[in-house]
Specification:
The chain is an alpha/beta fold. The chain contains four helices and five strands, in the order E-E-H-E-H-H-E-E-H.
Length: about 140
């Protein structure tokens, strides 16, 4: 796999491993997430991957909840989801025909002006450490943690 921008990959069991690939990248140019998707689909057994979600390098792809949060907040479905057709696992019962079907790539990276996005992108809000500790203590006292 010659994709030097890739920082981490996860193939969670919820996706039966090859049906869902989560990828974090160090993005350095517009459209790079789609280049990574197609690079993965063009590599060996990864050609069978039904869904690839590409996120920025600050997202922990080993944490499915974090990926869902970032992806669902960072995508405009019409702009950021790409459908392609190609080889599918012969055991895949959902494909339109044996060994051939559709795949979906989701570009959940921060969008750049070079990708047609000119609005300000919000920073992630973080809770100060002392506030977090106080909330954690209150949750423990309430029996919630």
């Amino acid at each position: 796999l010659n994709l030097p921008e890739v920082r981490d990959i996860s193939m969670p069991p919820e996706g039966i491993f090859h049906n869902l690939i989560l990828v974090s990248i160090r993005k350095t140019y517009p459209g790079q997430a789609r280049k990574v998707m197609h690079g993965i689909w063009g590599t060996g057994q990864a050609m069978f991957s039904k869904c690839i979600v590409v996120v920025d390098e600050d997202v922990n792809v080993q944490n499915l909840s974090e990926v869902a949060w970032k992806a669902l907040n960072n995508i405009d479905p019409q702009r950021d989801i790409e459908f392609v057709t190609g080889p599918i696992d012969s055991l895949d019962h959902s494909s339109r025909m044996a060994n051939w079907g559709s795949k979906m790539g989701i570009d959940a990276t921060k969008k750049w002006p070079g990708e047609g996005f000119t609005r300000p992108w919000p920073d992630v809000l973080t809770m100060p450490g002392e506030v977090k500790r106080r909330v954690d203590d209150l949750w423990k006292k309430a029996g919630l943690k």
